[in-house]
Design a protein that fits this description.
With 306 residues, the chain is α/β, with parallel strands linked by helices. 40% of the residues lie in helices and 10% in strands. The protein has helices at residues 23-26, 30-35, 70-79, 83-87, 97-106, 108-114, 127-134, 142-149, 157-161, 173-177, 189-200, 212-218, 222-242, 281-285, 294-303; strands spanning 3-9, 48-49, 53-55, 119-121, 205-210, 248-253, 274-278.
Length: 306
């Protein structure tokens, strides 16, 4: 059964080769470097096809000047609609009504569910998140909004306990150390990647969101970003080792640049990082140039020969 697993890393662009600036270069990432024949995912590497992966610096501007932002970038990924062009600006971090209207119009979760290709947003949220939403103190960002609009209830601590969901920080450790959930499963990065594969089995499209990359970029926290990418590398390795790559396309991508340049706190205008691995990667790579190319490419892959 064909399946797409989308690993979304917020705020990761394709930057310089300077390890003092770019934590993607400074980090020890044997899995990612192995996929790219020892090269780093930087601007000097450029678009690259290897025996195991496609590396695609991906246009986050989509014809609109200015620094790309989260709400419109994520909406373009999740709808195939050029949200910045529609709005006449890059907008974020969270959707306003204009952006929510685009997600309602073309959301990928809803579309796939309508055509009987079940989708799943696998991140869990703690009780405090739901309480803040209920009090009107927090707005849903684009990804959970699109999942809810597609008919899925957001996952909770109970879903973590039942091993139906993952933490945004990969391992679940933060749920214990920072949120006080003493009974939440804890995984190594590799175990978390393998667990994502097990969670994915009933679904044709599974989306995982990791936001810490953008947070660390905004805080110019280069050492923590290096550590975080090393955890991600283990997570990716665990997923690749467990997955059926003959039937599964794995996408790693982002909405805009940020953490790849820790010299300032702002988003960058660099291309977004994209990696494709597994089934159909060469065909999909031929279609992906911009953020709004993902949704139609995913639908085509899942329907082709289905």
């Amino acid at each position: 059964m064909k399946r797409v697993i989308f690993l979304f890393l917020d705020g990761v662009g394709v930057g310089s080769d300077d390890p003092a600036v770019n934590p993607l270069v400074a980090a020890h990432m044997p899995v990612l470097r192995g996929l790219l024949d020892g090269l780093a995912p930087t601007a000097s590497t450029g678009r690259l096809s290897t025996a195991q992966a496609e590396f695609i610096p991906t246009d986050a501007h989509m014809g609109v000047a200015g620094r790309p932002q989260s709400a419109t970038g994520q909406t373009a990924i999740l709808t195939g609609i050029n949200a910045p062009e529609r709005l006449g600006e890059h907008y974020g971090p969270r959707p306003d009504q204009r952006v929510r209207d685009i997600l309602d119009e073309g959301g990928l979760f809803a579309h796939l569910n309508r055509i009987e290709l079940p989708s799943y947003f696998c991140n869990a949220y703690p009780d405090g998140y739901f309480a803040a939403i209920e009090r009107g103190k927090r707005l849903l960002s684009a990804v959970p909004y699109a999942a809810v609009a597609g008919g899925q209830a957001l996952l909770t601590a109970d879903d973590m306990r039942a091993e139906r969901a993952l933490s945004a920080n990969f391992t679940g450790e933060g749920w214990r150390s920072e949120l006080g959930y003493t009974d939440i499963p804890i995984y190594t990065p590799e175990e978390a990647g393998a667990q994502l594969w097990h969670i994915a089995h009933p679904y044709r499209f599974v989306f995982f969101e990791h936001w810490l990359t953008d947070y660390l970029g905004h805080h110019r926290n280069h050492p923590a970003a290096v550590d975080n990418f090393q955890v991600f590398d283990g997570f990716l390795g665990g997923l690749l080792a467990a997955a059926d790559l003959d039937q599964t396309l794995i996408i790693v991508s982002s909405d805009h640049g940020n953490v790849e340049d820790c010299t300032h706190r702002k988003h960058t205008e660099n291309p977004a990082l994209t990696l494709l691995m597994g089934a159909g990667r060469d065909h999909v790579a031929g279609r992906v140039r911009r953020l709004d190319d993902f949704a139609p490419s995913i639908v085509e892959f899942l329907k082709l020969g289905d």
